[in-house]
Amino acid sequence: MGDIQITPSILNADFGSLAAEVARIPGADWIHVDVMDNHFVPNLTFGPTMVEALARSTDTPLDAHLMIEDADRNAPAYVEAGCASVTFHVEAAKAPVRLAREIRAAGARASMALKPATPIEPYEDLLAELDMLLIMTVEPGFGGQKFLDLCLPKIRRARALMDKHGVETWLQVDGGVSLETIERCAEAGADVFVAGSAVFSADDPDVMVAALRSRAREAG
Ligand SMILES: O=C(CO)[C@H](O)[C@H](O)COP(=O)(O)O
Ligand SMILES: [Fe+2]
């Protein structure tokens, strides 16, 4: 298991001042950018041009979470846009192994996401191809949703499979992560934590990043 990392999602930040919003969280390890196409999920955010502008505005690496159809064709554009980590959904990829290799070859960390009802077991042998596995803890599409405790057993099973295969793959959780729920995720074996509304609704978002980190460290 790697060290605890906190990756605030800008989904609930002020889209009119994203550079300023990102400057409020200098303690973040990554900035999580939720790309939604209104097809894979019923919500629409932004595309590679906007992500490229954000990448130019910060030194913090970008962690793209692509909730888009036809990931095989569309994901490489986000490496070109300057994202240091690119996550595609397995439900949207026709050839996940080829896509993960393509992302790595282009110079970014390759990551694969599972929706709450998608099991990890069919993908056990893919773990070595991935730099990170994202287990969603809400149905993707919107920020501010309630954390789904039913995802915790899958986090535990994913951690056990990573240990069994001896891989260095990071285990990220995304959705409803807060001071109240982060301990459960860390105890189950997650080491990378996305938090959107918890961070951007705090009076001082950077203090919240530090608080989330210490709570996860205590529990992990
Ligand atoms: O991928 C996402 C939604 O599909 C977001 O990253 C996630 O929901 C973050 O927001 P919050 O912490 O408010 O749940
Ligand atoms: Fe996300």
From TrEMBL:
Keywords: Carbohydrate metabolism, Cobalt, Isomerase, Manganese, Metal-binding, Zinc. The keyword Cell membrane does not apply. Substrate binds at residues 9, 65, 141-144, 174-176, 196-197. The active site is at residues 34, 174. The keyword Protease does not apply. GO terms for biological process: pentose catabolic process; pentose-phosphate shunt. It catalyses: D-ribulose 5-phosphate = D-xylulose 5-phosphate. Catalyzes the reversible epimerization of D-ribulose 5-phosphate to D-xylulose 5-phosphate. This is Ribulose-phosphate 3-epimerase. The lineage of its organism: Bacteria, Bacillati, Actinomycetota, Actinomycetes, Propionibacteriales. The gene is rpe.
